[in-house]
Amino acid sequence: MVVSSRAVEFQESYSASIRGRQDVDIVPQVSGRITRLCVKEGEQVKTGQVLAVIDQVPYQAALRTAQANVSAAQAKVETARIELQGKQALFDEKVISDYELSLARNGLAVALAELEQAKAQETDARNNLSYTEIKSPSNGVVGTLPFRIGALVSPGMTQPFTVVSDNAEMYAYFSVSENKLRQFRTQYGSIDKMISQMPEVGLQLNDGTFYGRKGRIETVSGVVNATTGAVQIKARFPNPDRELLSGTIGNIVLQGVDADAILLPKTATVELQDKIIAYRLRNGKAEAAYLTVDRLNDGNHFVVKQGVSVGDTIITEGVGLVKEGMIVTPKNVTP
């Protein structure tokens, strides 16, 4: 067989994790026991919708106390202001000293500061009462609800109350090797052109079926993982029917065309440990060629990246019996 090149379609599959456009951990901002659950698992919710209510009684009492403190502080301010007015009149008549007038002024300043402090405490109490309503910060779907009515929740708990996933669009995260990314960069000219020009990608679900809508590459990480030597890529898929769920796994399927691919049948190669070898004819003798390949998706051929060149004559029959330097008489040499 004389090696030649031709255009071949290829298909490559990469493991992917599927995430919602936004997965938000919902954590209570105040402590207390849940008195009401307002949604169900898997329910579609809107921004600001109440998910659950924490016992409001202690927070209502705290707000009333804070409001009473504001009223008391306001009364102190009025008393201090009246006292200052009286001291000012006495000072003008030279009945009291400047020291006593200064004390009255300071008394009013302290009363005003205490009023501002009381107002701040009232604001905190009002906010805490509002936080007893656990609300969704975004549109999305409610995840599991591990906490039921009567459960004690708090801002410091390690497990979120629930997760709201915005899954109108889904992201599939997968990784390719640094060498593969370099191939893409060479093919398209730059990462930006790769993102804009790369064909749509498919998504194979965990049960082996294919998702009915195509996705597009959206971002390519600028950092190579030091441990794996891989680069993360993100593909975006529309999900209007909510078929895809955040947290599932699948496979991203890339399809394309290699215009000058060298294609060898697997029967023309032998595998020795982790090496793939073909034998070519050189001056009537067999010479081992160690191949670097991508597996073609039909399972019967290799796309050869390195090891043989166009025009080489390759032994295709009885390859397992061939040895380095063996004299071989070619028959039926075909391209």
From TrEMBL:
Domain Multidrug resistance protein MdtA-like beta-barrel residues, every copy: 170-254
Protein name: Multidrug resistance protein, AcrA/AcrE family
One Pfam entry name: Beta-barrel_RND
GO CC terms: cell envelope; plasma membrane
Residue stretches in coiled coil: none
GO terms (BP aspect): response to antibiotic
Domain (Multidrug resistance protein MdtA-like barrel-sandwich hybrid): residue spans on this chain: 23-164
Gene Ontology MF terms in the entry: transmembrane transporter activity
InterPro entries, alphabetized: MdtA-like_b-barrel, MdtA-like_BSH, RND_pump_MFP
